[in-house]
Design goal:
The structure is a single chain. α2 packs antiparallel against α3, α6 runs parallel beside α10 (229-249) and α9 packs across α10 (229-249). The protein is globular. 75% of the residues lie in helices and 3% in strands. The mean pLDDT is 89. The chain has 256 residues and is mainly alpha-helical. It has one domain.
Length: 256
């Protein structure tokens, strides 16, 4: 069997393992919807004036933001925590002892994360259309949205694999992962959109990390505002760095 066939088989196995844990799968899909309902209830009653488009309901702005959040949750958070537990329970060590190439396992995890992300974003946008009557992108705008989605999902999955290199054990994984992602979600305009009144230091810090650029690309692709390809490239550069770090420092055996 070729290495590619082994990688595709690993994607299939990862998918089966994901759906055979119904509690984890349920909250993976329910979490972004819960946040969408909460933030639209708190801040979604008004409208915002978007240059080149006009007035848009605040609820419409939260749909692409929560879509971006769902991608980050499925790719970065879930992969980092699940791989850490697989490492500590000896699963990765057993996988490493099989004919499956190391790169095939990493690629399979990334591909599966992209698939789950696409399903999540479809659910979030459908929820927004049904309950908040948001306008869905089409044509070139939809193409840009999908490019940002797939590039962002693959990049955050690679970063999720990279962060496992500094997680000492499975018990520490939720704390480490949340500490590295939650503050940036607030500083990058995911939960509370950035405005002209946002402090300059928040804007500066947000632009250093990939979340802000990913959210901006998702917003532009969804709303039809000017799309900056640099945002997508910037996120992919972070993903490439994560992939290189994972390839160099990824640990297959439990850490003591």
């Amino acid at each position: 069997m070729s290495d590619l066939a082994l990688a595709l088989r690993q994607v299939r196995y990862t998918n089966k393992a994901f759906w055979r844990n119904p509690a984890s799968a349920f909250f993976t899909f329910a979490f972004p919807l819960m946040f969408l309902v909460i933030f639209t209830a708190l801040f979604g009653s008004g409208s915002s004036d978007i240059p080149g488009i006009g007035l848009i309901k605040q609820a419409t702005l939260y749909v692409p933001a929560m879509a971006a959040f769902s991608v980050i949750t499925a790719c970065y958070t879930n992969i980092a925590i699940s791989v850490s537990f697989a490492r500590d329970t000896g699963v990765l060590k057993r996988v490493h002892g099989t004919p499956l190439p190391s790169w095939a396992y990493i690629v399979a995890r990334v591909i599966h994360a992209v698939i789950v992300s696409c399903i999540l974003v479809a659910i979030v946008t459908a929820f927004g259309k049904i309950f908040y009557d948001v306008s869905l992108p089409a044509g070139l705008t939809l193409f840009r949205f999908l490019v940002a989605l797939i590039a962002g999902a693959a990049s955050f999955a690679a970063m999720g694999l990279a962060i496992t290199c500094v997680i000492p054990n499975a018990d520490a994984s939720p704390a480490v992962v949340n500490a590295t992602i939650l503050p940036l979600l607030f500083l990058s305009g995911v939960f509370i959109p950035t405005t002209a009144e946002t402090p300059a230091w928040v804007d500066t810090v947000g632009k250093i990390f990939p979340i802000r650029h990913f959210v901006d690309a998702m917003n532009a692709g969804f709303l039809g505002t000017p799309f900056r390809w640099w945002d997508v490239i910037y996120v992919m550069l972070w993903g490439l760095a994560g992939l290189l770090l994972a390839a160099r420092f990824f640990s297959w055996e439990p850490r003591r």
